[in-house]
Each structure stands twice: as C-alpha cells, then as structure tokens.
C-alpha cells in the first residue's frame, strides 16, 4: 500500500525479471489498470517498447518511472479523490505474463452527510452525487473502519463506495442497535441501489485552497452570505472543505456559519463548554431558513484564485482608465 493526499504525486511500485541476454525491451508490454470490482477494470496506462498511451481521467498525469530495466512502476501526478483504490500491474512477453496489485490510499477525513430534506432520503446514486457536490466521494469500508478506530460514532446508516450500508458505533446505546451490542462498524449488507434510501459516508482529502470565516459587522441570511464571499472573489465553503480544514489544517472556530448546501456548522479542535460539547468535531446546526435566519459564513478560496481575481480587477481598472482617457 502507498499513501498520499489529493494534489500529490505517488509512485505505484512494480518490478519484473529482466535479463539482458533475453528478449528486446520492445517486445515487453506493461499495462496498468484500476480494479473497480473483482471482475471490472479501468485502463490507466499501456506501454509497448517506446509506444505509450494513457487513458481517460489519467491522461497527461501518468508515466513509467523506468529507473532501470525491470522497473514498471507507475508515477501518478496531481492525485484526485477518484484515484483512491487498487491497481493492477501486468507485464507480458511472448512466453508468459505476470501481474501484481497495489493499493493507493489517501490521507483525509470521513464526514457523514444527509441533505436538507432529512435523513434516509438518498439512494446509492444520489448519495454518490451528494458527496461529489460537497467536495468528496463515497467512502470505502477501509476508510470508515479507520475512522471508527479513531473514535467516529454515528448512529445513522449510510452508503459506502461498494454499495453496502454501514455505520460506526464507538459508544453502544439503546437507540443505536442496543446498549449490549459490541462496538464496531455495523453492517446492513449490500442494499438495492435504486430503491433503498439511507444517508452517506463521504471522504475528502487535502484542500486545494483555504477555508476561512468571513469577518463582518453583522450576521447574514444565506443569500447575503453568498454575496459576501463572492465579493472577495471566493465561494461559500462546501461541507467536505470545512471538514478537511478542521481535520487537516486544524481549523478551530467557535462561530456558526453558513455552508454552500444551506447548512450551518462550525469546526472545533479544542473542545470547550461554550462551544458545543466535550469532543472535537464539526458541529452541525442543521438547515435553518435561508431567508430569515442569520449567521456568519465560511468561504473557500482556491489556490491561485485570489491572484487571478486581483489580476482581473487590475485589467478592468486599466480598461476603465483607458476609456476615461479616450472618450
């Protein structure tokens, strides 16, 4: 297993036996695939001698390391959330072929999610889309299990990447599968992806930017909050972005603020009595009225976006100045 984060570069190791007295390297075929399911593969990269090809979302992001003959390791740049998973390396010559697998893991954080309409309202595909909209992907069982080992306790069942429905319990209680039931990740098994409805467990990784709490003189409705972020050239932060800022950048802010989905939350690293409990986490105040309830706002600024916004402003000012001098 190799581990990295979103936006990083990683090498998936793969070696094969090569003899200088044997066949020419041009006759050796190297193929990398992503294993989607036990019998389903997605092409990533193929090389036959000097002829090489990358595929789909991996285009222009992958290449062979080729430190020496026998090295078929794959370099993946600008890692995305979707790159998470298992990969197969297949090396073939005229007489035989050999395969090996490696898992690409991501540093990140799990966040439970349900929409404004309430809990247990999403089928599998809707849960996939909800995670994507909040800057995440559906979590794997391994990711949920690791989050449970680190103390995640959530009493509502949610979809996972493999189509199963599970939930992590660190503190057994009657309303969550009975108090005498052992701790662990409770499993409802594989459910009907179209007809059955649950919450989602999403996963996100390193932020390609920064979340910040916008300081204003007064609290705002959701439309006002959106305009306030936009005025700075930024956007209202997504749920996954706030979780990443909390977990990976240790953002600690005891002020409730709007997020892009219309929910109101705030991140706590160092728990204190006036900030909602004794455990660290992202506090959730639900989905208040966007029009009538007033809060602060968490904005998101992508890397390079501020510089681009400033440059655009300078260009506009330059054009305006030119017009005033030439009219």
From TrEMBL:
Chief localisation class: secreted
PROSITE patterns, per the entry: IG_LIKE, LINK_1, LINK_2
Keywords on record: Disulfide bond, Extracellular matrix, Hyaluronic acid, Immunoglobulin domain, Repeat, Secreted
Subcellular location, record wording: Secreted, Extracellular space, Extracellular matrix
A Gene Ontology molecular function term of the record: hyaluronic acid binding
Record flagged with keyword Repeat: yes
Presence of keyword Lipoprotein: no
GO CC term (a single one): extracellular space
Limits of the Ig-like domain: 1-107
GO process terms (BP): cell adhesion; central nervous system development; glial cell differentiation; positive regulation of neuroblast proliferation; skeletal system development
Gene3D superfamilies named among the record's database cross-references: Immunoglobulins (2.60.40.10), Mannose-Binding Protein A, subunit A (3.10.100.10)
Residues of the Link domain: 109-204, 209-301
SS bond partners: 155-176, 254-275
Family: Belongs to the HAPLN family.
Name under which the protein is recorded: Hyaluronan and proteoglycan link protein 4
Organism: Aquarana catesbeiana
Organism placement in taxonomy: Eukaryota, Metazoa, Chordata, Craniata, Vertebrata
């Amino acid at each position: 297993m190799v581990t990295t984060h979103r936006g990083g570069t990683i090498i998936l190791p793969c070696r094969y036996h090569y003899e200088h007295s044997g066949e020419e390297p041009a006759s050796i075929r190297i193929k990398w695939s992503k294993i989607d399911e036990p019998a389903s593969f997605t092409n990533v990269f193929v090389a036959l001698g000097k002829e090489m090809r990358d595929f789909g979302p991996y285009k222009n992001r992958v290449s062979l390391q080729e430190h020496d003959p026998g090295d078929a390791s794959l370099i993946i740049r600008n890692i995305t959330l979707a790159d998470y998973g298992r990969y197969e390396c297949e090396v073939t010559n005229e007489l035989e072929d050999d395969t090996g697998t490696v898992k690409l893991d991501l540093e990140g954080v799990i966040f439970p999610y349900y929409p404004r309409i309430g809990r247990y309202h999403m089928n599998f595909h809707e849960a996939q889309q909800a995670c994507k909209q909040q800057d995440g992907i559906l979590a794997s069982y391994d990711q949920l299990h690791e989050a449970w080992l680190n103390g995640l306790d959530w009493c509502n069942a949610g979809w996972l990447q493999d189509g199963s429905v599970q939930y992590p319990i660190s503190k057994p209680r009657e309303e969550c599968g009975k108090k005498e039931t052992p701790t662990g990740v409770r499993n409802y098994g594989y459910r009907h992806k179209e007809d059955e409805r649950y919450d989602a467990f999403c996963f996100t990784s390193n932020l390609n930017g920064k979340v910040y709490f916008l300081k204003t003189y007064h609290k705002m409705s959701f439309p006002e909050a959106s305009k306030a972020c936009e005025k700075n050239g930024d956007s209202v932060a997504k749920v996954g972005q706030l979780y990443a800022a909390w977990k990976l950048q240790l953002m600690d802010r005891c002020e409730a603020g709007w997020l892009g989905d219309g929910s109101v939350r705030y991140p706590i690293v160092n728990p204190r009595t006036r900030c909602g409990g004794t455990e660290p986490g992202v506090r959730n105040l639900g989905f208040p009225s966007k029009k009538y309830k007033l809060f602060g706002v968490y904005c998101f600024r992508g890397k390079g976006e501020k510089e681009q916004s400033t440059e655009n402003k300078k260009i506009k000012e330059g054009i305006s100045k030119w017009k005033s001098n030439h009219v």
